TrEMBL record:
Domain of life of the organism encoding this protein: Eukaryota
Family statement drawn from the similarity comment of this UniProt entry: Belongs to the glycosyl hydrolase 1 family.
GO BP terms in the entry: cellulose catabolic process
Span of the signal peptide: none
Identification of the protein by name: beta-glucosidase
GO molecular function, one term: cellobiose glucosidase activity
Keywords: Carbohydrate metabolism, Cellulose degradation, Glycosidase, Hydrolase, Polysaccharide degradation
InterPro entries tied to this protein: GH, GH_1_N_CS, Glyco_hydro_1, Glyco_hydro_1_AS
Residue positions of the active site: E363
Length: 460
């Protein structure tokens, strides 16, 4: 095969809190991000998602934009507290919120765009955190999450055939409960492992529900999205090679191994000891095999050396500098991201070999430098983002056509510049420039790159 298969899907991704705004309109209840973003000094520019890109009101314009970009699919997330304002299984459903996503889904389909729906992109209803501690409370959160998922399958499953449970549980547990950098802002080294365990269970029981009660009649697929930077050993010393594998275990394997293989990685168990919760036999039977595909968010590669780092990454040191002093690739606006397409190809091969599931790239993208300060006329000529997407799309093509990795879809992050969490509005990942004063959308050069690429490389 020299081309991508004719049913290859591609498009752009977004997330509810990052684009919707209208935080207290339409009957929406608050989420933990509404609370967290208002704590002084948590967000670099002191901003929040109250308005964001105003997509709760401008959604038709956004669908038209997607259409003009030639996409086949759009990945967005549902705001849990917009459809169940207080979040719980005995709480009221907000029909206005339900109707909003129904309208969006119908408009996408009318335009020939397939919806890929994420159930949870970090905006837990504040009501659940207040009531019982949110992700820390196993019995309650699993039941409430499954109930919320049931509502979505019931109301949208006739039209939506591609479901993603969590977006990046690593961020939920590590940034939310270990580093305190994301909502709800806890710090410690016990909670992150408990929370991670509960996100896996909520995911798994949701998939069980879908497979038993919805899939037989609705016929869709469901999986989870995990994030990973490829880990490149600093040199070929056995210690650094082992460190790179441990880095992958701590970032990805801690979720992927239970879900696809039925156990936590041995390296994680060894370092975390009895802080790592155990699954009961009954739970394990539900967890193992609980994803129809491998959803991957990936942005970059890190160069890894043994030792020195903290436990979060498995006591490794990560950077971008090679032994000869050279950098891995083009530096982004954010410190954690450099362009390195070969790492993407290596990661895809690793995932296929290790987990043997079809892969969807659910996010991949680049924040070019200084887009927060340059005038729009300059920002739209985003050469670094163009270089990034060309490199990564070609690496994907090679992985599929030369290495035989079954990648089924690709979503660029993101359709629009948007609320970049703790970075606020200072970091821009969009292929569309957003003027936050007027909400005017202007396509950047990069919006044409993926269109051209997939027009050329997908089988007719
Ligand atoms: C994704 O997160 C998110 O799904 C999306 O919402 C976000 O807008 C997008 O990527 C761009 O960031 O703690 O050293 O890893 C990517 C995960 C989490 C990666 C925060 C960078 C900070 C540095 N990101 N992380 S580090």
């Amino acid at each position: 095969m020299v081309k991508l298969p004719s049913d290859f899907v591609w498009g752009y991704a977004t997330a509810s809190y990052q684009i919707e705004g209208s935080a207290s309109a339409g009957g929406r209840g608050p989420s933990i991000w509404d609370t967290f973003s208002k704590i002084p000094s948590k967000i670099r520019d002191g901003s929040n998602g109250d308005i964001a890109t105003d997509s709760y009101r401008l959604w038709k314009e956004d669908v038209a934009l997607l259409k003009s970009y030639g996409v086949r699919a759009y990945r967005f997330s549902i705001s849990w507290s917009r459809v169940i304002p207080l979040g719980g299984r005995n709480d009221l459903v907000n029909e206005e919120g339900i109707a909003f996503y129904r309208g969006l889904i119908e408009e996408l389909l009318k335009n020939g765009i397939t919806p890929f729906v994420t159930l949870y992109h970090w905006d837990l209803p504040q009501g659940l955190d207040d009531r019982y501690g949110g992700w820390l409370n196993k019995e309650e959160i699993v039941k409430d999450y499954v109930n919320y998922a049931r509502l979505c399958f019931t109301r949208y499953g006739d039209l939506v055939k591609n479901w993603i449970t969590h977006n990046e549980p690593w961020c939920i547990s590590v940034l939310g409960y270990q580093k305190g950098a994301f909502a709800p802002g806890h710090k410690g080294d016990v909670e992150p492992w408990i929370v991670a365990h509960h996100t896996i269970l909520a995911h798994a029981y949701t998939v069980k529900l879908y497979r038993e009660e919805f899939k037989p009649t609705q016929g869709g697929q469901i999986g989870i999205t995990l994030d990973c930077h490829w880990q490149l050993p600093y040199d070929d010393s056995p210690a650094n090679v082992a460190a790179a594998q441990r880095g992958i275990d701590f970032k990805l394997g801690r979720f992927a191994d239970p879900i696809y293989k039925g156990h936590y990685p041995a390296t994680v168990k060894a370092m975390i000891g009895d802080r790592l919760p155990e699954f009961t036999a009954e739970e394990l039977a539900v967890v193992k095999g609980s994803s129809d595909f491998f959803g991957l968010n990936t942005y970059t590669t890190q160069i890894v050396q043994e030792g020195g780092g903290d436990e979060i990454n498995g006591r490794i040191t990560v950077g971008f500098t090679r032994p000869d002093g050279s950098q891995l690739g083009t530096q982004a606006h954010v410190s954690w991201l450099q362009t390195y397409p070969p790492g993407f190809r290596l990661l895809l091969n690793y995932l296929w070999k290790t987990y043997e599931r079809p892969i969807y790239i659910t996010e991949n993208g680049f924040a070019a430098r200084n887009e927060d300060v340059l005038p729009v006329e300059q920002v739209i000529h985003d050469v670094d983002r163009v270089e990034y997407f060309e490199g990564y799309a070609n690496a994907l093509l090679q992985a599929v056509t030369e290495d035989g990795v079954p990648v089924k879809g690709y979503f660029g992050w993101s359709l629009l510049d948007n609320y970049e969490w703790a970075d606020g509005y200072l970091t821009r990942f969009g292929v569309t420039y957003v003027d936050y004063a007027t909400q005017k959308r202007t396509p950047k050069d990069s919006s044409r790159v993926l269109k051209r690429f997939f027009e050329k490389h997908i089988e007719a």
